[in-house]
Design goal:
Layout lengths: L2 H5 L2 H20 L5 H24 L8 H19 L1 H5 L2 H27 L7 H14 L6 H45 L9
Helix pairs in contact: 2-3, 2-8, 3-4, 6-7, 6-8, 7-8
Amino acid sequence: MKSFLMFFDRSYGYSRAIIAALVGIVLVIWPDAAVRTIVIAIGSVFLLLGAVTMIFSKKPDEGKNRSFLSINGAITLVFGLVLVIFPTFFVGIIMFLFGAILLLIGASEVAALISSRRETGAPASLFIGPLITTACGIVIFFNPFSSMEWLFIFFGISLLVYSLTEIISTKKLRKIYKDMTKTSEAEKLIEDVEYEEVEEK
C-alpha cells in the first residue's frame, strides 16, 4: 500500500491518539494554567510528533512510498519548533493557534483517508471524525468563548474527539488492509498451483 497505510500504522496511529488524548485531558482539567506554558508544552508535543513521524518515514519498507509521512513530519517539526522558540508571540493569538492546530490535524487526516478510500474503499463514515476536528478549528477562529478558560476546555475536548476517531480509523483501516492482503495471497496461491486435466475413461 502507499503512504496512507504508514499514516495509520498501529504504532504511529495509536501514538498520535494517546498524545492528543493526554493533552486534551490536561487542558480540560487545568484550563486556567499559564498560557505561555501551554504554548510551549503544545510546541513540545508537536516536536515529539514530528520526530516520531520522521522516524517512521525513514523505516526501510520495500515498495511503500513514505513521502506523505516525510512532508507531514517536516511540517509538524517546524510548527513545534516555532511554538517553542516564540511562545510569547502566540500567546496573543492563542485562539488562532488552536484553530490552526485543529485545521492541520483535520486536514492531514482527511488527506490520508482520501488516499485510503481510493485504494481500499474505506467507508465514508471515517471522514466524520476529521471533519468534526476541522469544524472545531474553524469555530475557534471566530472565538465565540466568554473566557480563555472555556477556549482551553473546548480545545481539549476537540483533541479528545480527534483521539477517539483516530483510534477508530487506525483500527478499521488496518483490518481492511489485513483482509485485502489475505485475499491477495489466496488468489496468488490459486494462480500458482499447477494442475493437470485427467481424461475420463
